[in-house]
Amino acid sequence: MNKFSTMRRQRGLQHGFTLVELMIAMLLGLIVIGGVVSVFLANQQTYRTNAALGDVQDSARVAFELMARDIRDAGLTGCNSTPDTARIANVLTSAPGGGGTAVWWADWNNSVHGYEGAVTTGDPALTGLPSGVKYAANTDSIQLIGVEHSGVTMNVDTETAGSFTINETSTNLAKGDVVVVCDPDHSTVVQLTGVSGTTLTHGLAGNPGNCSQGLGFPTVCSSSGNAYTFKRNALIARITPADWFVGTGADNVSSLYRVSLENKAGVPTPTAYEMVRNVSNLQIQYHQGGSTFVDASGVTNWPGVDAVRVTLTLLSSDQRAGTNTKPLQRTLTSTTNLRNRVH
């Protein structure tokens, strides 16, 4: 047998994959790859969902905490001498009975007031919103008025001159600020018309200005008014009105907004700020005395409200985080007591 015959015989013994075998191998490979891709996509979706859930929970935590601060402090003067509707003098010309046009942030007797659903357009704080900001229909809103935790203390009250001398060597109070002055006898809401060193003045001029220099209780709107000399170490603190509502901005994103009072060149000016994005709904209920929680329309005595229940609906910023490739949505509820109304 020659060499060429041996080589031909060896070639005849060699063979590769058949077409059927190759197709089966490819099919098995595709199944394995498909399984790997499926696990990857499932894990990716789980990660996105968990991240979105954390995002929603963080937003809810911030929203509830910020709102709770305003709710807890509503009606507090800083002296805790009386309930918020008792023995409160108010000499602002923009306060009810002050002789000028009443505005929501100057009405201490409405330190807590809610507006319900479709009728929230009756909320006076929602007039004159910044361009592009629109109230979200069928959501609630709430007005809250309190004072800052920081303040200054009285050294001398020169009532006839309409001035206070404070104990501190400096203050962040400024001309035009609206403050509450209080001691154990009563509290008075008044606008500062001048700040110079340790001297604060409260004359009749200003915007909105005061209807009287007399800060006694009850309010008497005349130049001298009802005179009262506040005791040494009486507290002076800036008021912090707030109105919470849900609206959409220029980018059409639904968010939780807060209207606060800013001193702009000596003029107290309500200003709306976006606080938490992707909040689509706000519903609020109120507890008064021994009753159950009711909507704003069911409240018969706003000064009797001692707790507020807030329900927020929030969406994830990831628009495909849900199992239906839509934003993840959660509705969460928090209840807050008013400090000076719970006994």
From TrEMBL:
The keyword Ubl conjugation does not apply. InterPro entries: N_methyl_site, Pilin-like, PilW. Pfam families: N_methyl, PilW. The chain crosses the membrane at residues 20-42. Keywords: Membrane, Transmembrane, Transmembrane helix. Residues 320-343 are annotated as: Disordered. Residues 330-343 have a biased composition (Low complexity). It comes from the Bacteria. The keyword Transmembrane applies. NCBIfam families: IV_pilin_GFxxxE. This is Prepilin-type N-terminal cleavage/methylation domain-containing protein.
